[in-house]
Structure formats: C-alpha cells, structure tokens
Amino acid sequence: MRRCCKLFITIVNCYRASSPGHQAAPRAVAIRFDVNSGVMASRLEWIPESLYNSAVTTLVNNYPIFQKDVRYLPESIAFDILYQLYKQNKLCFLGLEFYDLDVFAKISKVKDKRHLLHHCFQAVMDHGTQTAHLLAEAYHRRCASSSPNTTLHYCSYEYVIPVGISLGNFLSDAGWFRESEKILLSCLSLCRKMDDYKHWVSALECCLRLLHVQHSYCKFTEAMETLEETKLYIVKLTNVGHSLNLAGLYSEFSSLYSCRSQYKEGFHIIRAEFDTPCTAKGSPDRFAQSHVQLCGQKGLFPSCKTAYDWAMQALMHLNSNAHPKSIIDVLRQASKACVVKREFKQAELLIKQALHLAWEHFGREHPKTADTLLDYGFYLLNTDSVSQSVRVYRKVLDIRQNVHGGNNLHVALAHEDLAYSSYVLEYRSGRFQNARDHAEKAMQIMTRLLPEDHLLLASSKRVKALILEEIAIDNTDKEQEQRLLQEALDLHVSALRLSCQAFGEMNVQTAKHYGNLGRLYQSMRRFKEAEEMHLKAIDIKERLLGPEDYEVALSVGHLASLYNYDMKLYEQAEQLYLRSIAIGTKLFGEAYSGLEYDYRGLLRVSMEMNKTNQVLRYTRVLEEWRQLRQRSLREGHDASPFTFCVCKVPPEDIYTYVTSLR
C-alpha cells in the first residue's frame, strides 16, 4: 500500500512539474454530424481529465484499499482526496477520516481551500454524525496525555497547542461554538503550564479566539474571565518587548461590550466584577496577580467605558502589517459601534472600507465577505435604507447556505436578520409571509442546535413575535387573531425572561423587550399594562442612551400611539409625538420613514382636540413628507447596495478620517 502511495505522489509530482499551476490540458475538438442530413451539426469542445484528477478519482473509487495510507500523503493531496469523497457523497468514509484528530489537523492547514472544508464538514454533520463533539473530545484526551518533554511528536506541546488553536478557530468559523470553546479551553490549560515567552504568545492567541467564541455564544461570565486573562498576557508580552496586534485585541473587547449592550456604563460594571480576584474556576490566585499587574498599565488599557471607546482605540492602533482578516474585523466592529452611536457618516466610511477589502482579498462568496455584508446590512437598516438592507441580508443568507448548508447556527442568524429586515420593509403593506418563513426557519434551526434557555433564542423569539402580532391584527378571524396574539405573548415573555437572566433589568436589550410587550398589550387591549411596559422601556433607554437616542424616540412614539388611539390622552400624546419627530428628524432627516406614523398621529390628535389650524398644518406637512419620501425611495430603489465608489484609505489613516467626519 505504501508503494501505491509513493507511486501516486511520484505521478502527481511529475504532473505538477510538467504543468505548473495545474494548467488545463489542451482542448480536444470533436465534430458531430447529423445522421439524416449528413451535415455538420455542431462543434463540441471538451477537456480531458487531468492526470492528477484521474489519480484522485481512482484512489477514491478504490478507497477501502487505500484508506489507511491517506494520512501519509501531503496535506494538499489528502485534502483533494477527502473533498472528492464529499463530491461523491461517500460521507461515511469522510466522517471516519474527520473523526481522526491528526487527519483533520493536517487537512485544515490547507488555508486556500478552507471554504471547501466547511462544505465537507457541514455535510458530515448533517449526515447525523457528531463530528464536532468527537473532535473536541479527542483533543481533550490528547491534551491530557501530552507532555512538554515527550519524544512523541503527536503528544508534544509544539504539536498539540497549534492544533488546538487551529481547530478551535475552524469550529468557531463553522458555527460550532460549544465544541470550539472546549478545545480552546483545553489548549489554554496547556499554555498555562509553561510560564515562558513562547507559550505566552500561544496563550494570548488562544485567549483572543476564546473570547470571540464565548461572547458569540453569549457566555458572558466566562468571556469576562477570559478578558481579564487576555489582559494579563498582554502585559507579560509587552514587558518583554513583544509587538502586539492591539487593534485586533481592542476590537474584540469592543465586540464583547457590544454583545452585552454596554453602551454607556459597561466599563465600570466589568471592573466591579473583577475587583474580586477569585473569578476563574480552579485558579484563585491568577486573577489576583493580574489585577495587581494591570493597575500599572494605564497606557495599555485606557479607561474605555463603552464598545465605541474600545473600537476607536482599535482604529488608532490599526496598521497595514496586520492580516487583512484582522483589519476587516476591526473596521466592521468600529462601524457597528458608530451605528449605535448614530455616527452614520463614520459608520458608512468604515463598513465600505471593510467590504472593499473583503471583496479584494476573499472574493464575493467567502464567509468573511458574508460576515462583512451582515454588518453592512445592519448599517443600511439603521440608516433607513430598508429595501437595500433586505437585498444585502438575502445575499448573506445565500453565501452562508452555500458554505454551511442548512442546519447551521450562522445560517439561522442570517435567516433571523433577513426576517426582521423583511418585517420592517413590509410593515406598511402587511405582507409578512416571507418574513414569517425566515423567522420560523431561524427558530427551527436554533431550537435544534441550542439549549432551550439559550440567549440567542431570545432575539429570534422577539422577531417572530413581532411578525405574528402584525399578522394577528390584520386577521378577520377573531379566534385565530387571539391564538396568534397569545403565541406572540408567550414568545415575548420568554424572550424577556432570557434577557433579564443574561443582562439584568438595566440593559438596552431588556428595554427593547419591555417595549415590544407594551405594543403587544396594546394590541390585546390591555392598556394599563401596555403603558407600564412603555414607561419602563423609556426609563431604561434614557438612562443608558440619553434622552435623544433613536431607541428612546421609538418608545416615545409607541407610548404616544397608545395615548392617542386607545387611552384618549391627547395632550400627552401630542407632546410625545413632537418629541419623537424632533429626534427622528435630527438623526435621519426630513424623509425618515418613521415620521409618517408620528405625523398621522399628530393629525388625529389635532382633529380630536378640534385644532383646525393644526389639522391644516399637519395635513400639509404629511403631504410634503410623502413627496420627500417618494423621491428618496426612487433614488434608493435605483441604487444597488453592492455598487458604490470607495476611496481606499490606508489602515494607518482610518482613525484620522473618521474623526474628521465628526
């Protein structure tokens, strides 16, 4: 068998030597004649199978014979053989190979075909095997048997630690966060055993990836512990003169703050949690030592109190030496932070720079491009370019489905974002079936993959509940209306409970859930409860975001609607509408879509209060708004979100450009 493998390698090497770059063989031409007329019917062109591909196909067709010898082949050849197994739907063989930690570690080194590895991996997972879990268990066992001084290569720290970082990173990219976390924690435990420069570098890389996995999977308590340990390794490496990618580190800190919705008061909450040094399980002294060391590192860890602050610090440290992926991620996160801060010009600059880089370095169908488009859709949705955001989210879903298939967490999140943007787009038309389909698909996938009390379910439940409420309102069948409203209520209550458990009362996400409950109670004609929920939402949002934030305007407008249409508190409603209009106009301009509901509300209030002059005034204002809106929609409809001019800015100059736009 070894002889066969050597022969295969010899043939392949000879082929590569004669055909640099895997150039296609010359075209062969065949002429086909029409039998009846004797006239030449067409010219057929075909490319004979290359020697390399023929060898791969032959080996796969006889795989049981050669199976044990695949691991001895070079990485790229082994990958091509396993990918051919996937293409021929031989998933049982493929699954057996993927169970082997060393085989998977080998093929994962083929970086330029990583997206194809995602295809294979998801196919095996969908086939019913627990490949991610088995790999995590295998790596955990390997760590337990590893030693820094062993002569066995596969059990040495030099082999096991890089494999853990690579495998954990792959599973994170593939959407299997729980298994990724287990691998990275096992890897980090090895790094901790060796208190030297080389292992500090590995530990920092491991911590950074672990931090991303934990906050992406909403394990915020664990992420906080990882954050503190990350800072410890930053200090150690800085003290010995090691050059760090501070931009990437600070950007990941910003992402953690964003996930926790810590826009105003995040920093001191985090510090308070770490004032007690015994936070890491099994290591009560490590964070006490960290706390002492960090106190003298003001320059490394500025007093950043928000996700926005950390994002700006990341931009300040950005440079061209960083990997394109890291630069893109820094720009993406900074753009999201600017959107939340309502600095839309800055957000536009950042996300378009990120998208341009993603297209340039990864192409249009790569998972990193999909991640960047997701944040581009977030920017468009929050700048009232709803139809364009729907097109972008649809593209994200297409890419992620092509890469990951259907039963994947990344795909579920794309369904959810498309569901919500479609709901916003069709709010006036009432055509919610498409939004409902995507919301239900998101929940179906998440329910299959996540524990029933997982925080990621809160968002998908919220989106589905919003859609069901609107469908219920338009339903003429009262019995069905009540059933839909009750289902929406159950979803909202469950989402609120999950949010309170994760974030507590004083959090923007919790406030949003209170506001959604307020709207639903209004639809259910439970007006006092609706008022209570809206007032709670406004109070929390004002404390966290300030009195002139978009989220505050949204809740103020909802309370105005309750007072106007159901509680007949017209004077209070009028003041609330005016406040909502002032905030909306300031942030989004005179053509902002949300102004329609406020102007209509003011018109009705004026009619009910017999203010004739105001009726005439708001009738005129509403008509002017319609004209502006139509013009804006025509311009937006004609423009493709994927076609725009961007002046490429060097990473070192990004921060200066951003600050100049303020």
Q: What this model shows, in words?
A:
- The chain is mostly helical and 662 residues long.
- Among the domains are: 45 residues, no CATH class; 113 residues, Tetratricopeptide repeat domain (Serine Threonine Protein Phosphatase 5, Tetratricopeptide repeat), CATH 1.25.40; 137 residues, Tetratricopeptide repeat domain (Serine Threonine Protein Phosphatase 5, Tetratricopeptide repeat), CATH 1.25.40.
- Helices cover 71% and strands 2% of the residues.
- Strands 1-2 form a two-stranded antiparallel sheet.
- β1 and β2 form a beta hairpin.
- α10 packs antiparallel against α11, α11 runs antiparallel to α12 and α24 runs antiparallel to α25.
- The protein is globular.
- Keywords: TPR repeat.
- Pfam families: TPR_10.
- InterPro entries: APPBP2 (IPR042476), TPR-like_helical_dom_sf (IPR011990), TPR_rpt (IPR019734).
- This is Kinesin light chain.
- GO terms for molecular function: ubiquitin-like ligase-substrate adaptor activity.
